[in-house]
Design goal:
The chain is of the alpha+beta class. Among the domains are: 2-65 and 620-657, no CATH class; 408-507, no CATH class. The chain has twelve helices and 29 strands. The strands form ten sheets. Strands 17, 18, 20, 22, 23 and 27 form a six-stranded antiparallel β-sheet that branches. A four-stranded antiparallel β-sheet has the order 5-6-7-8, with helices on one face. Strands 11-15-14 form a three-stranded antiparallel β-sheet, covered by helices on one side. A hairpin with a 2-residue loop joins strand 7 and strand 8 (236-237). Helix 4 (126-187) packs antiparallel against helix 5. It is rod-shaped, with a radius of gyration of 44 Å.
């Protein structure tokens, strides 16, 4: 009855074709579904009496309409899209967290400078000094807010990275399980197309997070590798873990694996790049700016005095972390350097001021050593270390005040012979921001203001001759003689001998070690970085401590002018940018990155759309085409039925004729 077998094979093939076509139609809108195609082939012929007779049609396989090359391109593009998308989202958040309106750091800096400019023209107005301190406080708080925003973003990223790793682990586990099921189906001669679709979707889910190397294996299984490390082999899947390394960077590795994976793509790669590269960069730049502001303003504030002159006591605003360590290893955010600090002591009763140089060597001196050096070198000034806070405090004896303004020794050192009777005083306002020693040597003997041609030679600390000054006939006793660096010398009446000399020191840089800024002594700001920057509590409580002057003299606004001049000083970016332009460049850099990523994101979307369209053309379900297949299989079924009916009639007639 070969004829019935042939007809039955056609019925079964048509039925299977209808089932597959119906499944295609049902999944026309199912994500990840690939159109399935029935592959028909003639059955192997039957040999009978030396002749070959066909045995009808058979379903050889039910295949997915899929292009592996196209699928690989989509997977690769998925990884790239995830990498760009995640960075664009996160950098946009950084951009939005940096105000560029009136509350921006640049505008707050401008408010501080404007306040200082106003205070310099209204020295007697305490409200103007209060306005400066208020503006500085607002500036510090803006630094604090921006630093907190960036730090919070990093904390949020830590949670997002952990969640991403958890999602990846779940997908890898499912891929391993599907691999095992697919292999089982293949062993049974079945077509696991729906399982293959599901697995491919999961692979792309993982590829959206991390770059993958995909290898096709036996029994239609896949092997997934990342950085050469197997993640899925057959039915076995590895688990990933996220952890911090010694540098505080987030790494992802296989559980119990020794080496971190190189994740330079996908959403997880984008998050890791932002967390460990972009965020730290902008956070460091913010800290650099905060420290730049602090150093610049503090160096001027610490070497000036307020409207009430010098100090009776000061408490350091920045402490060491290690009391017994040398200052350069004590944990100071702004460590000092080798140099000196000049401290002026004024007897408030007599008005006499002396200036003492205290050498500073941060490589050998601890904070306690510095305190001992100050206390040992300067009478009527005590220095204490607070072991709890790691800070230095200075206290003057009753009847004394101290300052760090530098200036000129009021009483020059003399090298006079027994016959010299002249008196001398030095003065002037030091200019130029340098320290120098000036020596006046009398070239001949005579009487000051009387002897014709009597002169003194002026030399610097290196012995270089700077010129001669006339002190003989025509000179009036007490008349200031101009020396270098803003220094003046006044001689009283009397006689001088040839070779006698006077030596005076002018100090325009009273803190060459940067000790005052480092320890926060009479600084405008306290704190170590953008997160901790704040206005010195002593100045916040008493704005009259704002250092308006270098001399303490009424009407002296020289220190305010030094503050204002900071607006145009290129102290940032290796001496190429002002404080304001440095901040504006940081804002511009974020904007440039966001713009570039936006363009890349748009390009990626176009590419993905093209690939998806091609995939739909290759693997997607066109309902109209499927309905044509339905008609084809319906006609095939009807024809086979008629054929079987005809064969049946033929056999009935044959049997009846017997």
């Amino acid at each position: 009855m070969l004829e019935f077998t042939i007809g039955l094979s056609a019925l079964q093939a048509a039925q299977r074709g209808m089932e597959v076509t119906g499944n295609n139609v049902a999944n026309a809108n199912t994500p990840g579904y690939h159109r399935q195609v029935v592959e028909l082939a003639a059955q192997a012929p039957m040999q009978l009496n030396g002749n070959a007779y066909g045995r009808g049609v058979g379903v050889v396989d039910i295949q997915r309409a899929v292009s592996q090359q196209l699928e690989a391109a989509i997977t690769s593009q998925t990884t790239l899209n995830g990498y760009v998308d995640s960075q664009l989202t996160l950098l946009s958040q950084i951009q939005s967290s940096i105000p560029t309106d009136a509350s921006s750091i640049a505008n707050q800096l401008g408010a501080v400078f404007n306040g200082l400019q106003q205070a310099s023209s209204q020295l007697g107005n305490s409200a103007s000094r209060t306005s400066v301190v208020t503006a500085a406080t607002t500036l510090a708080r803006q630094f604090n807010t921006l630093a907190a925003n960036l730090d919070q973003m990093r904390n949020t990223l830590d949670s997002s990275i952990t969640a991403s790793v958890s999602t990846i682990n779940s997908s890898l586990q499912q891929i391993g399980e599907l691999n095992a099921q697919i292999a089982s189906f293949v062993d049974q001669g079945l077509s696991p197309n729906d399982l293959l679709d599901k697995r491919d979707q999961l692979v792309n889910t993982v590829a959206q997070q991390i770059p993958l190397e995909i290898q096709q294996g036996a029994q239609k299984q896949v092997t997934l590798l990342q950085s050469g490390t197997p993640l899925v082999i057959g039915g076995t899947a590895q688990k990933l873990q996220a952890s911090l390394n010694k540098s505080g960077q987030m790494t992802v590795s296989v559980v119990k694996g020794k080496q971190p994976l190189v994740i330079d793509g996908g959403e997880l790669g984008g998050m890791l790049n932002i967390r460990d590269t972009q965020l730290p960069d902008y956070r460091q730049r913010l800290d650099d700016l905060a420290q730049g502001v602090s150093r610049a303003f503090d160096s001027i504030q610490s070497t000036g005095v307020g409207v009430n002159g010098g100090f009776t006591n000061l408490i350091g605003q920045r402490g060491v972390l290690k009391l017994n360590a040398p200052l350069n290893a004590a944990g100071l955010s702004i460590p000092p350097q080798a140099g000196s600090v000049f401290i002026g002591m004024t007897n408030t009763t007599t008005g006499k001021r002396t200036m003492v140089e205290v050498p500073i060597d941060p490589a050998t001196q601890t904070l306690a050593d510095v305190a001992s050096a100050i206390g040992g070198a300067i009478p009527n000034l005590q220095a204490f270390v607070n072991n709890q806070t790691g800070t230095l405090s200075l206290i003057a004896s009753p009847g004394y005040k101290f300052d760090f303004t530098g200036g000129v020794d009021t009483q020059p050192a003399t090298s006079f012979s027994a016959g010299t009777t002249v008196s001398a005083t030095t003065g002037g306002t030091v200019s130029g921001g340098v320290n120098s020693t000036c020596k006046f040597t009398f070239l001949s003997s005579g009487t000051v203001g009387v002897t014709p041609g009597l002169q003194a030679q002026v030399t610097d600390q290196d012995g270089n001759v700077l010129g001669n000054v006339d002190i003989g006939q025509g000179y009036s006793a007490g008349q200031p003689l101009t020396g270098p660096n803003g220094m003046t010398l006044s001689l009283g009446s009397g006689t001088v001998a040839a070779g006698d000399s006077l030596t005076a020191r002018s100090v325009g840089a009273p803190d060459t070690a940067g000790l005052l800024t480092s320890l926060g002594l009479n600084t405008l700001f306290a704190g170590n970085d953008a997160a901790t920057l704040t206005v010195n509590s002593q100045i916040a409580g008493n704005p009259d401590l704002l250092a308006t002057s270098q001399t303490g003299q009424p009407g002296d606004t020289s220190n305010l002018q030094r503050f204002v001049a900071l607006r145009d000083v290129t102290m940032m970016g290796n001496g190429t940018q002002t404080l304001t332009t440095y901040f504006n460049q940081m804002v511009a850099d974020v904007g440039s990155q966001v713009s570039a990523l936006t363009q890349q994101d748009n390009t990626n979307k176009v590419l993905m759309t093209r690939l998806t369209d091609q995939q739909q053309g290759q693997s997607g379900v066109d309902v109209n085409e499927e309905m044509m297949q339905v008609i084809k299989y319906q006609q095939m079924f009807q024809s086979a039925s008629k054929y079987i009916s005809a064969v049946n009639d033929m056999y009935q007639q044959l049997f009846q004729s017997l």
